[in-house]
């Protein structure tokens, strides 16, 4: 379990993390979402004790991580896949990490097999593609068989097969009872990966809820209906409590009634329908709306 209490980090005049209070629980894949510059990487660095908080606390299973010797046995992390010695082989890199963390050297070969890099174990990391480096970073995170795992933008550079593999891996790690925290700036990546969401913007907590809860709250946006007799249909639907508004090209947009109910009411009233289309707000759209006023670098200028 990871616990943040009133966690704040300032760099000079920039507040990267602002009074963040949050518990990341075991047994779940928690998606850590926020637009660029929201403070995700800073938060992960604070969890790992790589940066010191300006104020507040962060603990991993009750203890500040920096106080733990042999850290990789407690927390595994993929932060920056490019941040490795390119001259070493993958096996040498992981063996060195294992040695300095009191982990049996044999684990290096086990995790290389697990991430699909066994065949290139003795090749220089400098010759690895970005996707291979991501896999190596994941192997390093798994090396100490830790109960808590942090992944910063783990999908970068992975091909579709790699993305599928990583998703399955995260689910398995969570099913084993581990705490899995995965950062991303794309809701579309998290939709099929996480079962819990934490959303931040400008260093502040915006949402902390299950993916299912978030999806239910976003809900269906309405039903687009087309009929040659909009006046009659509007009267019938409003009488049943529907909210009816004019849509594009003479269509009606109806809220508060399901498509099935609208169809039944039109049929009962003898009103022909030419279109009946429920539309949902995508989670990506909902996420963009949620964070719209906390985006530091909006395309086309600030909204
Ligand atoms: N070492 C640092 N010194 C000064 N400012 C920093 C430092 N690290 C981060 N920041 C600033 O803190 C804010 C949060 O940055 P951070 O990298 O944590 O965001 P992020 O959510 O991970 O963004 P991204 O998705 O772009 O990686 C930004 O405004 C960034 O410029």
From TrEMBL:
GO MF assignments: ATP binding
Keyword Metal-binding attributed: no
InterPro entries: AAA+_ATPase, ABC_transporter-like_ATP-bd, ABC_transporter-like_CS, P-loop_NTPase
UniProt KW keywords: ATP-binding, Nucleotide-binding, Transport
Recorded superkingdom: Bacteria
Pfam families tied to this protein: ABC_tran (PF00005)
SUPFAM superfamilies listed in its UniProt record: P-loop containing nucleoside triphosphate hydrolases (SSF52540)
Protein name per the record: ABC-2 type transport system ATP-binding protein
Natural source organism: Micromonospora purpureochromogenes
Organism lineage: Bacteria, Bacillati, Actinomycetota, Actinomycetes, Micromonosporales
């Amino acid at each position: 379990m990871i616990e943040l209490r009133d966690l704040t980090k300032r760099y000079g005049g920039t507040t990267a993390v602002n009074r963040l209070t949050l518990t990341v629980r075991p047994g779940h894949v928690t998606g850590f979402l926020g637009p660029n510059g929201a403070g995700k990487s800073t938060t992960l660095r604070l969890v790992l004790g790589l940066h010191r908080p300006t104020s507040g606390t962060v603990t991993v299973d009750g203890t500040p991580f920096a106080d733990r010797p042999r850290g990789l046995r407690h927390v595994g992390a993929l932060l920056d896949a490019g941040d490795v010695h390119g001259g070493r082989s993958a096996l040498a890199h992981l063996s060195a990490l294992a040695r300095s963390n009191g982990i049996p050297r044999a684990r290096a070969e086990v995790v290389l097999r697990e991430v699909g890099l066994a065949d290139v174990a003795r090749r220089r990391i400098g010759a690895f593609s970005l996707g291979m480096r991501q896999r190596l970073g994941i192997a390093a995170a798994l090396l100490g068989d830790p109960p808590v795992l942090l992944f910063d933008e783990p999908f970068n550079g992975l091909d579709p097969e790699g993305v599928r593999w990583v998703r399955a891996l995260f689910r398995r790690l969570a099913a084993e009872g581990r705490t899995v925290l995965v950062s991303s700036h794309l809701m579309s990546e998290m939709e099929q990966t996480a079962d819990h969401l934490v959303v931040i913007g400008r260093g502040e907590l915006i949402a902390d809820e299950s993916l299912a809860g978030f999806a239910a709250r976003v809900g269906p946006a309405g039903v687009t209906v087309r009929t040659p007799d909009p006046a009659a249909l509007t009267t019938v639907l409003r009488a049943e409590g529907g909210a009816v508004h004019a849509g594009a090209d003479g269509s009606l947009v109806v809220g508060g009634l399901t498509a099935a109910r609208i169809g039944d009411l039109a049929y009962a009233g003898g009103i022909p329908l030419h279109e009946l289309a429920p539309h949902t707000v995508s989670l990506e759209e909902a996420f963009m709306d949620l964070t719209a006023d906390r985006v530091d670098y909006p395309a086309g200028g600030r909204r």
